[in-house]
Amino acid sequence: MSETRHTKVLIIGSGPAGYTAGVYAARAMLEPILVQGIEPGGQLTTTTEVENYPGFTEVQGPDLMIKMQEHAAAMGTEIIGDYITSLDTSARPFVAKADSGTTYTADAVILATGARAKWLGLESEEKFKGFGVSACATCDGFFYRGQEIVVIGGGNTAVEEALFLTNFASKVTLIHRRDELRAEKILQDRLFKNEKIETLWFHTLEEVVGTDNPLGVEGVVVKNVQTGEVKEIPCKGVFVAIGHAPANELVKDVLELHNGGYVKVKPGSTETSIPGIYAAGDLTDHKYRQAVTSAGMGCMAALDAERFLAEQE
Ligand SMILES: Cc1cc2nc3c(=O)[nH]c(=O)nc-3n(C[C@H](O)[C@H](O)[C@H](O)COP(=O)(O)OP(=O)(O)OC[C@H]3O[C@@H](n4cnc5c(N)ncnc54)[C@H](O)[C@@H]3O)c2cc1C
């Protein structure tokens, strides 16, 4: 049944940014409503061990997100399993329509819709995701100490990930379908000087191969795009670094964006180009993309929204 509900603060997204915003907004007595979206808990629900969230030496991603959800709810955030399909930022209060038919009006909105790593779309890539296939060197590099790794891509992300992974891996092979990189020159210089990195030009990833029990990567099958020759490279980790896509669909035509679609915020805050609309987490962060930084920005967004609402009164 369609209904209209008003809230002082509407939080869109249920990753670390959204739930942390919920904790802070609820403790500020703002009675926030948080709409979870189609992936309750966000990106961390798609991974296994998380070893870099303070307070947890090791925790499973889905378990950590359940704890965050429980924390936000315990503080008084109303958590709703729904999906926001449109957001009218020209109206006051702002108007968000949800897939269920409910309309939310809100005095302030915190956008925490996150981002998605781009994947190649291979069946074997999907099979080994979280078990040797990753899109985040900062998150998972540590698991590959002394191992051979391949990185797929040719832009800044790929080169940065390859360089970072040399801190752990015995060898990193960067696989790129062309014979030149799109990455900045300074990064390329560092890459070519690094003795642990080998670059394989004119190759594409065809398949990730590994064991089923336990699930784990043993190598990749790559194809030379010039000759068609196929060969296998042994490795324990595959890092797909072909970019990220921020989930900006609700606001891409109304908010200022930067760096390929990330919502732009004023430095040191979560204020977007529209007063009363705040952005936190991976949606606005092309650089760090971590759970803890997202949580930090969720806190900032709730505090920014609280101050905005106080000024309105
Ligand atoms: C496989 C993997 C492993 C990772 N491992 C680590 C790690 O070990 N350590 C670490 O710090 N980071 C890790 N990360 C990165 C970390 O998950 C992200 O930085 C973090 O989740 C970003 O949080 P967020 O709150 O910005 O958004 P996300 O976690 O991306 O969540 C976005 C939320 O928005 C919701 N949403 C989107 N659109 C709508 C809409 N229209 N209406 C309502 N809701 C919507 C989604 O349902 C989702 O709940 C990993 C990421 C991946 C993919």
Structure, explained:
- The chain has about 325 residues and is an alpha/beta fold.
- The protein folds into two domains: about 5-115 and about 245-310, FAD/NAD(P)-binding domain; about 120-240, FAD/NAD(P)-binding domain.
- Helix content is about 25%, strand content about 30%.
- Strands 1, 2, 5, 6, 7, 8 and 21 form a seven-stranded mixed β-sheet that branches. A five-stranded parallel β-sheet has the order 10-17-11-12-13.
- α1 packs parallel to α7 and α5 packs parallel to α6 (about 185-195).
- The two termini are about 35 Å apart.
- The model has no long low-confidence stretch (mean pLDDT about 95).
- It binds flavin-adenine dinucleotide.
Q: Give the oligomer, counting copies of the same chain as homo and different chains as hetero.
A: single chain
CATH class of the largest domain: Alpha Beta
> Could you state the order of secondary-structure elements as H and E?
EHEEEHEEEEEHEHEHEHEEEEEEEEEH
Q: What do we call the CATH topology of the largest domain?
A: FAD/NAD(P)-binding domain
The low-confidence runs, each spanning 5 or more residues with pLDDT under 50, are: none
Give Rg in angstroms.
21 Å
CATH homolog superfamily of the largest domain: FAD/NAD(P)-binding domain
Number of domains: 2
Largest sheet: 7 strands, mixed
Helical content class? 10-25%
How many strands appear in the DSSP assignment? Answer: 21
Q: Quickly give the structural class.
A: alpha/beta
- Identify the bound ligands: flavin-adenine dinucleotide
Report, as a whole number of angstroms, the end-to-end distance: 33 Å
CATH architectural name of the largest domain:
3-Layer(bba) Sandwich
Q: What would you call the shape?
A: elongated
What portion of the residues fall into strands of 2 or more residues?
25-35%
Calculate the mean pLDDT score and round it.
96
The total count of helices amounts to 7
